[in-house]
Amino acid sequence: MITNKKYEDDIKGKNYLKTIFENKCIHKLLQKKIKTYPLGYYFVNQYISRRTYNENPLKEGIATDISSKIKKKMVLIRKMALCLQKAIIPTKGNKRNTDILFITRNRFIRLKDEFGTEYKSDYLFGPLIKELDSKRSYQMDIITNEFQDVPRTDIISPRSLIEYSSLKILLVSFIHANINYIKWSIIKKCIVQKFGTNEKKAQMLTARFFSYTNLLYIQIYDRSLQRALQTTKPRLIIANDDIMQFKPKKGTKMIVVQSASMLSQNEKYRKLNIDKFGLEDRIPSCFLVSGYKYKKIKQYFVDPSVIKVTGQTRYDVLYNTYKTYDKKKFINRNHIKQNEKIILWTTQSHALSMEENKSNLRAVICAVKDLPNTKLLIKQHPAEKKIHKKLIETGIEKFEVNALIMDNSSDIYEQLFCCDILITKNSTTAMEAIALNKPVIILNLSGQTDSVDYVKEGVALGVYNADELKPKIEYLLVNDNVFTEQRESYIDKYLYKFDGKSTERIIQIIDQMLT
């Protein structure tokens, strides 16, 4: 049975957040500004992040078993050791007036341009950086938000945010984290009494956020961000919307670029930063979205005047796939037979429960293991962990499936171009496959409604019971043009013109802002 659990959680979530923000003690604590943003900004963002990745935001976040506690402690120790190391060793160079500062996540991959030339860069901004580097003379820097080392890349050498930390930042962060934790400890008992037994979930939300580890992380992050801005002095910030959606400083010129699908409820939650924490003067100069459907969704958060529809630069290469990729070379390189149909499964294990991951694996393996002349390619999400890969490897070995796990850094667009069917849950790879006229199956065995409307829009087949998967694969292998009519209107709504010129449009906006 399919239940609209996401909608029910939204109603509960709004009620719990309302309860929290109406409490004067908590609200006063969350309004406390660090250097860049108030604590409440991080509270809202963490709530949205957990919701986006299907991690129940209302679930207790404290590890109870000993092994989980040890793992969490080890992760914290490693991060703090890295912080200390970077703080002791001063950041060399990079103290300059930067024209454009890109702020993104630590996800650098091999990309191809329209001529098939390979280069390594940011998964979202790579094509834009390459075009700017070749056609403009802007000074550019790129910073990742994660507290870990970054790889070497072409064009611009990225830096981790933690490289902008210092001994002073660490010391001040420890002091303020302790102050906030003590304040929280003092008001916690009073809050528990006011919330009452019916508001246990609201208590969990606050307890999770006000854990000492989280408070310390936020302090270091916020202060390191401020120092990074003081060091690079950017004329323009271009941010991945997964990382930052508000100006770090009033008066800064800032562009926020859509990186993935967008959920209307998340945009409503995001508006709490304005309504509850007074960040209306931090709204970016403009938001760049990939289609008019997303512009409509974004209006739950900001005025439509600051939203521009440009398409997405990383999809420009999809427009030229027949120039860029060669299926014959791909199948030879991966030892795939000429007569084998390629079924590509893009997993999202990091965002699903282990129970759902096992159900998905079982369903896919059972569906394809007896299909003649087929090859299963499995492309894991970059955020998946070793435990997820081990689960897949065990399943393949146990059932002796004709399958291949693709390297994490391999080119997903090449795989989409060469595949005959794509299977996924709600990944943007479905949107990319649709743009390439590939049949798509949405595998959703969670018992909940789809979070992205691929099936509702008529551009994919939905599978909500494991037994339905094999016959639907067989059907699409024969009827691969079944979604042709709906694809055109879908692309108009979600991918703008899909003409290979999104990068050009964004560069025009950048030029205008830097003139």
From TrEMBL:
Keywords: Transferase. Pfam families: Glyphos_transf (PF04464). It comes from the Archaea. Gene3D superfamilies: 3.40.50.12580. One of its GO terms (molecular function) is CDP-glycerol glycerophosphotransferase activity. One of its GO terms (cellular component) is membrane. PANTHER family: UDP-N-ACETYLGLUCOSAMINE 2-EPIMERASE. This is CDP-glycerol:poly(Glycerophosphate) glycerophosphotransferase. It comes from Methanohalophilus euhalobius.
